[in-house]
Write a structure and sequence with these properties.
Length: about 210
């Protein structure tokens, strides 16, 4: 470092309390070493200044190492933060995706519950089939009873027709007994509807009843 550069450094340093002031003072002591009457004292001052300069140099060197180390740490930290930010961004995207899926699942669940509620309000297929089977059995039973009653009615009419035909061949006392029996049987079968035909004796009454 030239003397001019040192002077400029001292001007920038203000009062000259830095290392440049020590170096300048060292140069002055070295230049005045041959002119001084007490070279030992100047030598001691030079040694002290050299120690101070060396200490300052080591201090600056350590500071520089610490700064470099911290710079490296900051760079590593910056890289780690960048990696963490990328991971967090990916996690956020994944969480958004899961949230959208959960929202869709909830919507589907609500629709399913509504459909299940509607189905529950309607009778089930098994219940409907059971009711239809009961109705079918009742209809078959009613049809069977109707056929039985019709058959019984046909049989009674045939019997009465046969008896009515026999009435014409019987004498008067026997006719009255048979007619009474036939009339009693007709009354048991049910009341006959009123007829507008005139009263006819003997077997004709029975025939009229049958024609009704």
């Amino acid at each position: 470092m030239t003397e001019e550069a040192i002077i400029r450094k001292l001007v920038a340093d203000g009062d000259g309390t830095g290392d440049d002031r020590r170096i300048l003072h060292l140069f002055q002591l070295i230049n005045g070493l041959g002119k001084s009457n007490d070279p030992k004292s100047i030598t001691n001052k030079i040694i002290i200044l050299l120690d101070q300069i060396e200490f300052s140099f080591r201090k600056q060197q350590q500071i520089s190492q610490v700064i470099n180390s911290e710079s490296e740490n900051y760079e590593k930290l910056y890289e780690e933060i960048g990696v963490l930010l990328n991971k967090n961004q990916e996690k956020m995207e994944e969480v958004k995706k899961q949230f959208a899926e959960a929202k869709q699942i909830r919507k589907n669940q609500q629709e399913y519950d509504n459909i299940a509620k509607m189905i529950k309000e309607k009778p089930s297929r098994a219940e409907t089939t059971k009711k239809l089977k009961i109705l079918q059995d009742e209809l078959e039973e009613a049809y069977s009873k109707q056929k039985t009653l019709e058959q019984r009615l046909i049989e009674k009419r045939e019997s009465i027709c046969t008896l009515a035909a026999l009435l014409d061949e019987l004498d008067e006392p026997n006719k009255e007994q048979v007619e009474d029996a036939l009339m009693a049987e007709l009354e048991e079968s049910g009341p006959a509807p009123p007829s507008n035909k005139p009263n006819t004796p003997n077997g004709e009454n029975v025939r009229n009843e049958l024609e009704m």
